[in-house]
Write a structure and sequence with these properties.
With 224 residues, the chain is α+β, with helices and mostly antiparallel strands. It has 2 domains: 71 residues, Orthogonal Bundle (434 Repressor (Amino-terminal Domain)), CATH 1.10.260; 127 residues, Umud Fragment, subunit A (Ribbon), CATH 2.10.109. Helices cover 27% and strands 21% of the residues. The strands form 2 sheets. The chain has a 7-stranded antiparallel sheet. The protein has a two-stranded antiparallel sheet with strand order 1-2. α2 runs antiparallel to α3. The radius of gyration is 21 Å and the shape is elongated. The two termini are 36 Å apart. About 9% of the residues have low confidence.
Length: 224
């Protein structure tokens, strides 16, 4: 879905301005361009013409098309602590926090469905890729580096052949009906998972044929 028109209206309303005043303050933003988009006369403008507006709004040009900022702005929890204006000031899309069940049921090449309602959002993380999401750490198997209730950023578009030993991964195994967060170990032709917690009882988790890569963990978000 194209959110350009509603996003332009959202940011103009948010900052209590209009195309005329905006061009006077920033001559690179042409009121004629904004008016044509708002009226529907221009449905697919060149990305380069939108760069000044995107810079002013504090988002990327791509996000003007792809992210519904009005819906995010109406959400009561963007990340529970940080105001939306602070989020928008960071270029990139906010990252939704999803459940482990959802993570295990979606394949690495699928985008998180746009119509899904999320209760929590995290600041953007470019390493997540275009389909990235976040998970809430459960248990102590990855302690002390990752503690319960930490949030981890996940890139679901990483391919198996791009992984290397010691990468942190999310793996789903249908036989055990489990989606788990562990360190990947690659030795010759063998691959298995390990916890980071040296006191964890299960030292090795074998990867069977019913296990598949869900994503690579690319970041940590911890609330203080």
């Amino acid at each position: 879905m194209n959110y350009l028109r509603t996003n332009i209206e959202y940011f103009l309303d948010k900052y209590k301005t209009n195309p005329n005043d905006l061009e006077q303050k920033n001559p690179r933003i042409k009121q004629s361009t904004i008016f044509r988009i708002q009226s529907g006369a221009t449905k697919d403008p060149r990305r380069s013409t939108l760069e000044p507006f995107a810079e002013w709004a504090g988002v990327s040009v791509s996000d003007l098309f792809e992210v519904d900022f009005r819906e995010i702005g109406n959400s009561s929890k963007l990340d529970n602590n940080v105001d939306l204006s602070q989020k928008i000031a960071i270029e990139g899309r906010p990252i939704p926090v999803i459940s482990w069940v959802q993570a295990g049921s979606w394949t690495g090449v699928e985008s998180v469905p746009r119509d899904t309602e999320f209760n929590e959002w995290l600041p953007p993380n470019a390493d997540c890729g275009k389909n990235g999401y976040a998970l809430v750490v459960k248990g102590l198997s990855m302690s002390p580096k990752f503690e319960p209730e930490d949030r981890i950023y996940v890139n679901p578009d990483i391919q198996t052949f791009d992984l290397k030993t010691n990468d942190l991964v999310i793996v789903s195994c249908t036989g055990d009906n489990e989606t788990t967060f562990k360190k990947l170990i690659i030795e010759s032709d063998e691959k298995y998972l390990q916890p980071l917690n040296p006191l964890w009882q299960e030292k090795i988790m074998q990867l069977t044929e019913d296990c598949r890569l869900v994503g690579k963990v690319v970041g940590l978000y911890r609330k203080i």
